[in-house]
Structure formats: structure tokens, C-alpha cells
Amino acid sequence: MIGVLIVNLGTPDASDTSSVRRYLREFLMDGRVIDIPYPFRFLLVNGIIAPFRAPKSAKIYQELWEERGSPLKFYGEDVCRDLQSQLGNNYIVKLAMRYQSPDLATAMSEMEKLNLKKLIVIPFFPQYASATTGSIYERVMELMSTWQTMPNFSIINYFYDHPVFAKFFADRAAKYQKEVDFDYYLFSYHGVPERHIRKGDVTKNTCILGSCCDSITEKNHACYRAQCFATTRLIAKEMGLKEGTYGTAFQSRLGRDPWLQPYTDETIKKLVKEGKKKVLAFSPAFVSDCLETTIEVGEEYKELFEEEGGEHWQLVESLNNSPEWVDLLVDLVKAN
Fold first, then answer.
1. Is there a single domain that holds both residue 154 and residue 169?
2. CA 66 to each of CA 4, 14, 70, 247, 292: distance values in angstroms, whole numbers, following the listed order
3. Taking Cα atoms as reference points, which of 172, 167, 126, 169 lies closest to residue 286?
4. What is the pTM of this model?
5. Domain total of the chain
């Protein structure tokens, strides 16, 4: 038996304030997410961020919530079911979340009892980042450290460069291109603090947060920023876009420390000033539509774009529970 564990970031169990606060505390107390000493992180998260941010976030989650609950969770459940169906009885597929439920520890405990020949872990993040895939890797290894019988093990660090990934977004974009003559294509990725990228530069002399990300090399192949720019290039190539008609930006910054740039909100203002009136937006750092895609990019940035004088803003949906996404996962499993 081969175990396949698919893992996404997580979502509150409900859209009320207490559930959101509980989620934020678990998420933000991860030392790979907020990488400051524990005492300061504890005070910051529990004394400032969670108490004040939870009520505001709960209102946004209530906008996002559907009859089946959080899209990030129920899309994951759909994919888990369909992936199991595609792989067959020689595999056991389980869904887990790094934070909240379905709990990663419970899923790993269930995997341990199956006496697996191999365990394949697939974090649901197209690009590698220490705060996402790295955190899942760390937690899985921590949980496995108590196992007496270790199966063969592999983890998928990233899959942004899988041909199906770029083709999916190109195909979805084509649907909107038939309706609107867009004059710009903006690829918006979730941001991380610049220090996360510098800390990940094991060479200590490669990262300049600039032209070093213009291509993937032996030195920067695990750099989140470089992988984001590479993702943009791959999708743009699949779409046949010309240089100057597309760009990369980063969203969701928090706090005063510098995060990856250019910032999406500032880029939007700049685009309108340059005369870009019709923009097709992508969120290729996410496989499931969630607060950061549906609300932030789909609604808040659309509102900003129109306030600045833009005419048409359209978000391309994520992989969600599409057959193409399941096919990509099947391919990743078989290759590993």
C-alpha cells in the first residue's frame, strides 16, 4: 500500500470570530511564518494580531463561506475523493491541513497504522516557501520521528513547472480573452517578508532580490521569489503573451518590515496611470480559491482598480476541484 497525503495550509472550522481567532493563533505561532523569537511571537500573536484581526477577518470569511463551508476545505475534499478514485485500491489518499482540521497529526497517525510501503506527501503549494511547504515538511518529519517502522518517503517540494499547471491557467484565461480584449495580464502571488528569501539563500551571496530571480539556476532553484517569476514566464509563454503586456506582483503584506516587491496594490495604481484599462489577473500561488484570491484579488483589488480609473478587472479561477488538477496530482504520484 502506498499512502498519498495531500496537505493545504488550513482554514477556520467556521466563520465566527472565535473560530477565526483559533486558526490565526495556530497559523501565526508557527516559527516559519513569523520568524521571531518565541516570547515576542507569542505576545505579538496573542496580544495584538489575533484579538484585533479576528473580528475583521471573520466578516471577510463570512463573505467567502458557502453552504459546504470554506472553499479551500471542500475543494480539498473533492480532490481527495477524485484522486483516490483515479489511483485505485493500491493507494490510500488522505487530506490534511497544516493548521486546524482535518488535522495533520491525525492523518499521519492513520497512515502509520497502515504499515505503508511508501508515503508521498504533496503540499498544495505550486512554489516552495519555508513558511508553507517548509513548515509542512518540518511538521511531517516531527510526527514521523516517533514511528518505529519507516516507509519509503518523498515530498513534492513544488510543481509550478509541471506543464499541466501552466496550461490550466492559459486555458482558463482563453475563456475570458474571447470576451474582452485585455491590455495587461497581472500575476499576483502571496507575499513573504524579504528576510525569508535572504535566509533561504544558503550561498549567502546570491540573493539581491532583483535580477538574480530572472532565471532559475542551481543557486536559486528553491527561492520562492525566483519560482514566482518563473511561473509567470511559463504561463505567459503558454498564452503567447508579448513582453511588456504582463507582470508579477506580490500581495498580502503584513507589518512594517519590507515584503517582496513590487506590491500588487501599488502596481495596480501604476498600471492605470500608464493607461491599462482592462486587466486579467491570476493568483498562481494558490490551488484553491480562498480569501486571498476570491476576496483580495477578485473583489478588493477590483475595487481599487476601478477607483483609480480602470474599466475591467477579471480574476482567473484557481485549480479548485478541476479534472486537470486531479490529473496533475496523479502524474506527481506516479512520478514519485
1. no
2. 28, 11, 6, 32, 16
3. 126
4. 0.95
5. 2
